[in-house]
Specification:
The protein folds into two domains: 158 residues, Rossmann fold; 122 residues, no CATH class. 39% of the residues lie in helices and 18% in strands. A five-stranded parallel β-sheet has the order 2-3-1-4-5, sandwiched between helices. The N terminus is likely disordered.
Length: 298
């Protein structure tokens, strides 16, 4: 696929939204509807050809599907994804909302809802059963969002940012910081380790601050390896992003990690995000551990 946006004018934009129960599919559908999409939730797969074989809709379409649908089968959904991917009259994406088992279990416990595939069994059995059913679909996702660290408000904002209605191809770039102690961001496309840089944590005056503060940013920048690292990272990103755009990728996440996710990774993330924005890319910046500390994530 090329970046020739003129060919996109008469193509129907279609986003298929799926994922395990409790991961945020309904929130995503509502966010897409508020963003200008014609949203249809839990439509039987057998009705999809009738919906798509007519004239191009004036608005993009968002279709929600999950394992509770009475016609659902993994084989049928995979076959549908393959057929839609091959259609030249569609700009088609699969949005998969994922979540860790422990967070899903907590969400079901907090809402006192029974997992739809658990019956009277332990909810973890239902979660495991549904994830197994959807595993092959997850592998076909165009956009994968792990909602484990997102509040409903944050998830709506992320969906809105990534799927804003606009003509032509686009590439939204997210630059994240994180702590290795809390694990890698599961949705990251490219990950870089900042733990080799000098650590502000060991300076008592800088320890309470974050990489967003000038003192910490200066401290990290004074590491003799910093300049070369930033130069090479920036060159790599700016050379690869156009290639991902040409391939039709709509979203790309670059993650920088350090031990605590507060100082070095945050400082580097801020600089790389600014560099890419100045180069003309649509960029958002997120600091996972700072959000946790401020209580912005569940």
């Amino acid at each position: 696929m090329t970046a020739d946006t003129s060919s996109q004018v008469d193509r129907q934009r279609l986003v298929l939204v799926t994922g395990p129960s409790g991961a945020g599919r309904s929130t995503a559908i509502h966010a897409l509807e508020d963003s200008g999409y014609e949203a249809i939730d839990n439509m039987p797969l057998s009705l999809l050809p009738r919906l798509l074989n007519g004239p191009v809709y004036p608005r993009p379409l968002a279709l929600g599907l999950d394992a509770r649908n009475r016609e659902f089968s993994t084989a049928a959904l995979l076959e549908t994804i393959e057929e839609l991917t091959q259609r030249s009259d569609l700009e088609f994406e699969v949005l998969y909302l994922d979540c860790t088992d422990d967070v899903l279990l907590r969400r079901f416990s907090e809402t006192r809802r029974r997992h739809p595939l658990a019956g009277g069994e332990d909810p973890l059995r239902g979660i495991a059963r549904e994830k197994q059913v959807l595993e092959s679909v997850r592998d076909r996702a165009s956009v994968l969002i792990d909602s484990s660290d997102y509040s409903p408000h944050d998830l709506r904002a992320e969906i809105t940012r990534q799927f804003t209605v606009e003509k032509g191809l686009r590439l939204a770039v997210s630059v994240h910081s994180f702590s290795y102690k809390r694990g890698l961001p599961r949705s990251a496309d490219m990950v870089f380790d900042c733990r080799f840089l000098r650590n502000p944590h060991w300076d008592p005056d800088l320890r309470p601050l974050t990489g967003c503060d000038d003192g910490v940013a200066t401290y990290v920048r004074e590491d003799p390896r910093y300049a070369t690292f930033l130069e090479q990272i920036s060159a790599l990103c700016t050379s690869l992003l156009p290639a991902y755009l040409e391939e039709g990728k709509s979203h790309f996440t670059i993650a920088f990690g350090c031990t605590g996710g507060r100082h070095r990774s945050v400082a580097v993330t801020e600089v790389v995000a600014q560099t890419l924005a100045l180069a003309g890319w649509q960029v958002s910046c997120r600091h996972r551990e700072l959000e946790r500390a401020q209580g912005l994530n569940p």
